[in-house]
Design a protein that fits this description.
homodimer; alpha/beta; Rossmann fold; Dihydrodipicolinate Reductase, domain 2; six-stranded mixed β-sheet; disordered C terminus; oxidoreductase (chains A, B); threonine biosynthesis (chains A, B); Semialdehyde_DH_NAD-bd (chains A, B)
């Protein structure tokens, strides 16, 4: 009846960890065992899974013994600290942090785009940044028909990208402002309730922030298009968990807009929400909790005969992080790309 | 001691009307008389001005007798209904609606950009759309040094663009959601609290909404650049009164980024907020209630050697509407462009 796998979640108590747990359950991942790992601070916490209470354990050198798949979502330094141990123990780590994404030995995978890269893993597969995943799923179906030459993107990123506490902060901040108070921001550097600000990740010398450079570099790696020209402006907005992106695409020659719409209506991981009659297009509230990237406002760019405009929304925690990681795990299982220690349970 | 003018505000009770009143007071506009006009529904309302209570009158055929300047902010149909009467009575109407903006006989003015157009008025001057004013103030100082060839803009528009009731709706909606309710939107077609959506103005056949086409057509008219290629994606966000814009500019040849920053640091109506050290850039909360357009994140576009990226925030009610109208009125006074009925009061 197929095989079952021993999975560990590293960083089980965060926003993405919680979602990973939910997805392993709802997608009926073939689990032989599920281990919840976190820092010593979170150890002892219990989380519900398939009707049972699982206790979070503090990660240690023995944590990965016998584990087939590690889903890591505890941040770059934790992933760096434990990757070697996990791989040495025979596991494949699917890492949600940015630590290894641009490492040429580490495949960076969006299953709808470059699943073939999974075969090249050496024990580690990187899960791309949320904004990159969302954009890749939406533009790849067009790119494979006619290569994209340039992308100008502006993002509208929800609080969830900064974690569960950031989502909570937007709510408490909103309530305080509605009460006439002036709350002091704690998680974000500036108030986000009824406000927005350019993404506050560190800036490089050219003035691009890390989040923007992730979109640039990761998208190139995923699409296998090292000469693709990309510029991005990333902005944090007071939305809870779905990101939106305004994307301007330039091709070598015109891309028929009806054909683009037709292609995207059939693309895996994409749901076309493009109702001109009702003026109804993708919105974060509709994307929240959904697997698909909602894509709409597909237009011929009136400023460029070779251009297309499109607009998308996608759940940042789900497809932007946890779901993509689970889909990579499913891909490893389906293509039989795990290490031979796999627990064969009939 | 100079001259004083009789001013009427048509649409005095709206968000922009209220701001016009505040600005006439705070800027010490040389008023001989101020008349507040509105629909019959709002007649009788009293509004405070210079410590006195003024009563709003229902607009009628005699309302404009003896008036020098009409500041109209009651919507396109009201402006259309009363423009002829006001002009025939000898007034100059500064119209905040979109009714006459693209009329070749009507100057469309941003005082920092094309003040010279005021001399061509025939009794009517149009105040541009908010998004257009904000963008024009920020890009014109660069355009006059080296003509812009193409603009790709994405907006982050506050609730105020849809009026005072829309601002209120965002607050009550936020409160309801925080209370665990699912409020039904009334002013906007979709919930805006903790959400966002593409601007819901009517779409043309190419899929561009009216708001986007205003940015395209009005910007061309104001800059006197009919061949300037512009594309825009307009988005409503849960912010109360300041709009933000992510703007990608393309020139014929490279525009030195240090020079761009230098030019914008001295540009009228612009305040440079471009603190890379502190990762501090324009935000709606900082732009709210301010006259200047805050501009920052001025970067060399890494996807185009002839490109610049910039980010701006500006108060939609203030410079995006009321302040620009008052500045046009001040321009008429300064350049002596009002009709000869001017009341000369020493």
């Amino acid at each position: 009846m197929g095989q079952f796998y021993r999975v560990a979640i590293l960083g089980a108590t965060g926003a993405v960890g919680t979602e990973l747990l939910e997805l392993l359950e709802s997608r009926h991942f073939p689990l032989a065992d599920l281990k919840l790992l976190a820092s010593a601070r979170s150890a002892g916490t219990t989380l519900k899974f398939r009707g049972e209470k699982l206790t979070v354990e503090a990660v240690n050198a023995q944590s990965f013994d016998g584990v087939d798949i590690v889903l890591a979502s505890a941040g770059g330094s934790i992933s760096k600290a434990w990757a070697k141990t996990a791989i040495a123990a025979g596991a494949v780590m699917i890492d949600n942090s940015s630590a290894f994404r641009m490492d040429s030995k580490v495949p960076l995978i969006v299953p709808e785009v470059n699943p073939q890269e999974a075969a090249n893993h050496q024990g580690l597969i990187a899960n791309p940044n949320c904004t990159t995943i969302l954009m890749s799923v939406a533009v790849y179906p067009l790119h494979r028909v006619q290569p994209i030459k340039r992308i100008v993107a502006s993002t509208y990123q929800s609080a969830s990208g900064a974690g569960a506490r950031a989502m909570e902060e937007v709510k408490t901040q909103s309530q305080a402002i509605l009460n006439g108070q002036t709350p002091k921001p704690e998680i974000f550097p500036y108030p986000l309730a009824f406000n927005l600000f350019p993404h506050n990740s560190p800036l490089n010398e050219q003035g691009y922030c890390e989040e923007e450079m992730k979109m640039v570099n990761e998208t190139r790696k995923i699409l296998g298009a090292s000469d693709l020209r990309i510029t991005a402006t990333c902005v944090r907005v007071p939305v809870l968990r779905a990101h939106s992106e305004s994307i301007n695409l330039e091709f070598e020659s015109p891309f028929d807009v009806a054909k683009a719409r037709e292609i995207l209506s059939k693309a895996p991981g994409v749901k076309l929400v493009d109702d001109w009659q009702a003026n109804y297009f993708p919105m974060p509230i509709d994307a929240s909790g959904k697997d698909d990237i909602l894509v709409g406002r597909i237009r011929q760019d009136i400023s460029n005969p070779n251009g297309l405009e499109l607009w998308l929304c996608g759940d940042q925690i789900r497809k932007g992080a946890a779901l993509n990681a689970i889909q990579i795990a499913e891909l490893l299982v389906e293509k039989n790309l795990l290490k031979p220690q796999i627990a064969a349970i009939v």
